[in-house]
Amino acid sequence: MKTVLNVILVAAAVLLAWMCYESIQIPVQFKEDAAKRDEVVIQRLKDIRTIQEQHRDLYQTYCSSWAELIQFAKTDSVKICVKVGTLTDKQLEDGLNEKKAWEYLCNPKKYAKEIQKFGLDKATFSRDTTKVNILDNDSSLIARKVWEWIDEIQYVPFAQNKDTFELTVGSVTTASGYAMALFQARTEYAVYLQGLDESELTNKINERKEMDKFPGLQVGDAEQANNNAGNWE
To answer: Which of 167, 187, 176, 150 is nearest to 72 (CA)?
Structure first.
């Protein structure tokens, strides 16, 4: 009888130890897994912001749908300046600047004396403009080869049902009467953290709601200007 009691006590002690371990480990594991997913989703929102801001710079508006954004990214372009060489200190001291130097080189007959005076040569100095695709106009987009998966940019990573980010545009009138275009893109924790510990996920969502904050990740704001900041920044 004593042996049986000892076995029961040992089993109970092991079970208690396991329960204590689980009570500590589950929140830790949830935070680690959630942080990894956060990182991926945040990067996707940054990509969306980059493309939206390029659209704003060109057209003073934001894309109001994923189809519009993807089409813009695939087919539109921006002008960039391609620079070769720099002016010497002596040329700068003599009053030359890049704009004048390129103007002289583009009109060699008219500015033959100036070209000779400053020692200019198109082989060593040039300033020209060319058009590049939207996705080739940002080093981050290029580095991660966004052009290869641009058709998937609207889908929330880790979502189990091909959920898309919520995309909203709006505007606000400034004190000077200017209508400022706004946009936001966001997704809830429940969408991209699905599959992780349900209890911890519920706690995370409730914590945000109690703070009267959006229970997820969001970039920009369709109701008030925030310089397109993300709520993780």
So the answer is: 150
Distances (CA, A) of 208 to 91, 196, 201: 60, 18, 11
Is the whole-model pTM more than 0.85?
Answer: no
Maximal CA-CA distance, the chain:
113
Environment class of 131 (CB within 10 Å of its CB; exposed 0-12, middle 13-18, buried 19+): exposed
Distance, in Å, from the CA atom of 215 to the CA atom of 206, rounded to the nearest integer, reads: 8
Q: How far is CA 28 from CA 34, 35, 39, 196, in A?
A: 10, 11, 17, 12
- Domain extents in the chain: 34-76+134-220, 86-124
pLDDT tens per residue across span 124-161: 888 888 888 999 988 999 998 999 999 999 999 999 88
